[in-house]
Amino acid sequence: MDARLPLPALLSHALVAFTIEFDNEAEHLMPHRTTRHGSTAGDSKAPWLVSLAMWSNCMRFVTAEGVAVSELHRLARTQTNLRGMERWGYITVKPALAGRRPRPPRSQWVIRATPAGRKAQEIWRPLFGIVEKRWEARFGRGAIEALRKSLLDLVSRFEVQLPNCLPILGYGLFSHNLSRPEARRARGVGNDDGSPLPLSALLSKVLLMFALELESDSEVSLAICANVLRLVGERGTLVRDLARMAAISKEAMVVSVNFLEKRGYAAMRPESPGSRTKELVLTAKGDRARDKYRQLVWAIEDRWQARYGVNAVPNLRRQLELLVGDPTAGKSLLFSGLDPYPNGWRASLPALQGLPHYPVVSHRGGFPDGS
């Protein structure tokens, strides 16, 4: 086995760290409410807290004039949780014209930001630059510029336009929740308005392209392969330990384990006769899926080196390895920016011991650990 982290794991560590740092700052600055922690200063009308992905797949495109539902999906290149964003207080979705005329199809309805949504937009917009400046101070400006250059070099070679974020994962945690991919119209890489892509968008595009290629040749998603199959020992692993080991939420792990059980890749059994403690054991089918995952992550990296240029992938790997370093908490500089504010929702959780090997972006708000 190669002792190095696979390329998608390196990308995931950097992207999840960036997202958590971004989310912690947004939570600190923005009036909000959460299920377990109530509302900011008792503001019961504050929007429900969401993650960076919901800016990238929704709020970034909601202008003062509004945007049609179909146009939002085209611009974002992926689906958003539109009903959630409406229910959580960020947007309204209504027909453009009221009255007795027959209602147009929902795809033609117009999305507009609520006052709380506009406030969130003001807070989110500059945070990408703020976090990137922190990373330049933490890792060195040259290191971040080199990482950006390596990511841009690779993304510029992709033949399709991908979203600026990972999609909300569908059934089986597959990454196919996308609008129809568009062919790249030009060699340049940037936002539609010509502005440079944030670091999180570049990391997302490369990681998503890797996931799409792996999932085209695997019956198990990269998210489940990297966060679950990878961790199950030859004699099984305690189910209660898996979420902590993978650094994803318990809810995301339940979804993953249920998929593996239903599809015959794994089974639950008592840790010992009569024990109520369960462990997850891979079936022969699960063993084959894990072996295939281990082969594919390196095979795809080799394919990319042949397809995108002999230096593009090695350069990116080198920059990511410098950034991630030792990937365990307390040793990697990525963790130095992840301490939550004392009143933040993450402050009530056990300290992170690692980062996911693939982000689990859920419909519940887009948080990268599936929370």
What string, H for helix and E for strand, traces the elements in order? HEEHEHHEEHHHEEHHEHHEEHH
The major beta sheet can be summarized as:
3 strands, antiparallel
Helix content: 40-55%
The gross shape turns out to be globular
Structural class category: mainly alpha
What's the pLDDT, averaged over the residues?
A: 91
Beta strand %? 5-15%
The total count of strands amounts to 10
Low-confidence segments, given as residue ranges, are none
Distance between the termini: 31 Å
Count of DSSP helices?
A: 13
User: Roughly how many Å is the radius of gyration?
Assistant: 21 Å
Biggest sheet: strand arrangement? 3-5-4
Question: What this model shows, in words?
Answer:
This protein is mainly alpha-helical. The chain contains 13 helices and ten strands. Strand 9 and strand 10 form a beta hairpin. The mean pLDDT is 91.
Describe the protein's topology.
Layout: H1 7-29, E1 33-34, E2 38-39, H2 52-56, E3 67-68, H3 69-76, H4 82-87, E4 91-94, E5 110-113, H5 115-124, H6 127-139, H7 141-155, E6 160-161, E7 182-183, H8 199-215, H9 222-227, E8 237-238, H10 239-246, H11 250-262, E9 266-270, E10 278-282, H12 284-308, H13 312-324
Antiparallel strand pairs: 1-2, 3-5, 4-5, 6-7, 8-10, 9-10
Helix pairs in contact: 1-6, 1-8, 1-13, 6-7, 7-8, 7-13
